[in-house]
């Protein structure tokens, strides 16, 4: 495979001047059965390269337990890109942001004694090196110097937006350099001078990330790096959504205008995202702007060149037309669109309450004070804290001090209210009238922060629970990662509003196709299809449907389980189009 180098004006593939026309697609956001379809479509858009982050947390979910199969099979993804004729840019982190849970870091890093992330900290670097040993063992045969399709590798990720530890950046450069020898290494940073300057490393190519104002961004980059070609490593031609916002879109005309500005200056480009995909399971990230915690929705559609379900967009065709002005492209041969089906309504005939299901879902743990989810060895999902209050105290102010992220509170089995991080509400008035009162708090981890100064984001109850000023002790805790819901004991019992229940029904089909489950009549929760966690839904939107890829389904009967926290419905509908706003 060609080797990528550069002179002061252009990238060179085996010595020939080349524009890098790349698109981002994350293997961990698309089911493996669809990798080839999506990659072929990106090639038919006129791209010659695909870029992917590498998510540490899916490859090492627990320390020392490495996963490189299924949706985590990065080797297969890169080989598939090579098969369809695309070069590959890899961004291995260890931090990736990506609106992905904890910026790609595995949750267990937070439990390592004396660790400090993204700096020259020995405990942190030891964990990174152990991970890189496993990762690069798999990437090495795929490097261009070994005949593979990988032409460039990123060092860290937008470090100038976080810190200024040059010793750390140099260590990361040297750590990757010794593993890949003479492959092209680069960094990428936002367009502000402080970001570019803070993220640059000696002897490493710097690229810049932006969505508009090409001239300003490229001029700033050229000022700091005069003897290298221009590249926008993240062209933000769309955007992601937080819960409670409108769905973000950007017109094709606006995108093409900025793209033309880049190409006229001989600038290479990587579309972020070309194909966004889905934050399946509990892997969505969150932002924190110093005032409010903002979790990201399940869909990572991003208003990309391809939709979440892999369909081409108007933007796709306009981008290809623009490329045709600058490079020779073969006749377009798009794959057939993946079929979509409207399966209609499914009755949910069985239910079981969460608070009656601890035996099937959890192993209880004891602690004097309520600890964080991480301290109980749990990464994702929900957690229930339970204690007995002894004494009929009467009217009290119950405070859950620093809940991360959303807690439903029950006194003697009755719902008394919500405490949550988004609204900032941490206290409720309760009436303690019995000699013994059972207090239960169901806390949802809604995604760890993936960007900015508040990256270390412990989940659960992070400080304590008190009545007035008296802290409560002696807790029984039920971790609920919900990574296996097959042991639940369903029945036809009635449900109760504001009490979380699992609801089960059967979708029977003759033909397997992509579909979307319409959650617009439900309130908040999670959906499982044949054991696959599709992700979260929430009535506040903008997302109203969840994408169900055909490989999650089978001919005949399919088990549908909805874990609803508040308002319970009797049926759910499968439709053939998404509703994102």
Please explain how this structure is put together.
- This protein is an alpha+beta fold and 581 residues long.
- It has three domains: 16-323, TIM Barrel (Alpha-Beta Barrel); 344-351 and 488-575, Jelly Rolls (Sandwich); 358-480, Galactose-binding domain-like (Jelly Rolls, Sandwich).
- It is built from ten helices and 31 strands.
- It has an eight-stranded parallel beta barrel with strand order 4-5-6-7-8-9-10-11, surrounded by five helices. Strands 28-27-30-25-14-31-26-29 form an eight-stranded antiparallel β-sheet, with no helix packed on it. It has a six-stranded antiparallel β-sheet with strand order 15-24-16-21-18-19, with no helix packed on it.
- A hairpin with a 2-residue loop joins strand 22 (460-467) and strand 23.
- Helix 4 packs parallel to helix 5 (166-180) and helix 8 runs parallel beside helix 9 (314-323).
Order of the strands making up the biggest sheet? 4-5-6-7-8-9-10-11
Instruction: Give me the oligomer status.
Output: single chain
Low-confidence stretches: none
Q: How many extended strands?
A: 31
The residue-averaged pLDDT reads 97
Bulk shape: globular
Distance between the termini: 43 Å
Looking at CATH, the homologous superfamily of the largest domain is Glycosidases
- Judged by helices, strands and strand pairing, the structural class is alpha+beta
% residues in beta strands: 25-35%
């Amino acid at each position: 495979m060609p080797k990528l180098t550069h002179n002061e004006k252009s990238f060179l593939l085996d010595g020939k001047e080349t524009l890098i026309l790349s698109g981002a697609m994350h293997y961990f956001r698309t089911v493996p059965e669809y990798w080839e379809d999506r990659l072929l479509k990106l090639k038919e858009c006129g791209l010659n390269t695909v870029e992917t982050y590498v998510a540490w947390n899916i490859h090492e979910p627990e320390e020392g337990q490495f996963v490189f199969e299924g949706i985590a099979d990065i080797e297969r993804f890169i080989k598939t890109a090579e098969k369809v004729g695309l070069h590959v840019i890899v961004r291995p982190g260890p931090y990736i942001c990506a609106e992905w849970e904890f910026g790609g870091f595995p949750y267990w890093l937070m439990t390592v004694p004396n660790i400090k992330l993204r700096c020259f900290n020995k405990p942190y670097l030891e964990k990174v090196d152990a991970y890189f040993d496993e990762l690069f063992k798999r990437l090495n045969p795929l490097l261009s110097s070994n005949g593979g399709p990988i032409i460039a590798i990123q060092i860290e990720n937008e470090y100038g937006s976080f810190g200024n530890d040059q010793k750390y950046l140099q260590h990361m450069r040297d750590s990757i350099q010794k593993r890949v020898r003479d492959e092209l290494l680069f960094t990428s940073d936002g367009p502000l001078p402080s970001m570019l300057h803070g993220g640059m490393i000696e002897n490493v190519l710097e690229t810049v990330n932006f969505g508009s104002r090409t001239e300003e961004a490229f001029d700033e980059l050229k000022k700091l790096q005069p003897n290298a070609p221009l590249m926008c490593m993240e062209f933000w031609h769309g955007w992601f959504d937080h819960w409670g916002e409108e769905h973000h879109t950007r017109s094709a005309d606006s995108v093409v205008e900025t793209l033309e500005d880049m190409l006229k200056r001989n600038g290479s480009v990587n579309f972020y995202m070309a194909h966004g995909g889905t934050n399946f399971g509990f892997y969505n990230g969150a932002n924190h702007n110093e005032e409010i915690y903002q979790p990201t929705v399940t869909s990572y559609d991003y208003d990309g060149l391809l939709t979440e379900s892999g369909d081409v967009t108007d933007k796709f065709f306009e981008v290809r037309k623009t490329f045709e002005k600058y490079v020779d492209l073969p006749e377009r041969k798009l794959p057939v669109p993946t079929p979509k089906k409207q399966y209609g309504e499914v009755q949910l005939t069985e239910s079981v309450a969460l608070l009656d299901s601890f035996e099937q879902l959890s192993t209880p743990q004891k602690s004097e004070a309520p600890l964080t989810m991480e301290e109980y060895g749990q990464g994702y999902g929900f957690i229930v804290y339970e204690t007995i209050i002894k004494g009929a105290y009467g009217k009290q102010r119950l405070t859950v001090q620093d809940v991360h992220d959303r807690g439903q509170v029950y006194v003697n089995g009755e719902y008394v209210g919500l405490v949550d991080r988004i609204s900032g509400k941490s206290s409720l008035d309760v009436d303690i009238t019995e000699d013994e009162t059972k207090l239960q708090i169901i806390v949802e981890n809604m995604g760890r922060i993936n960007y900015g100064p508040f990256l270390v984001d412990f989940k659960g109850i992070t400080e304590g629970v008190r009545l007035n000023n008296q802290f409560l002790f002696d807790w029984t805790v039920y971790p609920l990662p919900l990574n296996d819901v097959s042991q639940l004991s369903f029945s036809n019992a009635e449900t109760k509003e504001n009490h979380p229940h699992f609801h089960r029904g059967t979708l029977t089909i003759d033909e397997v196709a992509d579909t979307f489950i319409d959650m617009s009549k439900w309130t908040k929760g999670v959906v499982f299809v044949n054991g696959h966690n599709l992700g979260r839904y929430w009535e506040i939107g903008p997302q109203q449907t969840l994408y169900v890829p055909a490989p999650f389904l089978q001919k005949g009967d399919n088990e549908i389980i909805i874990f609803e926290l508040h308002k319970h419905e009797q049926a759910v509908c499968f439709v053939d189009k998404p509703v994102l706003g």
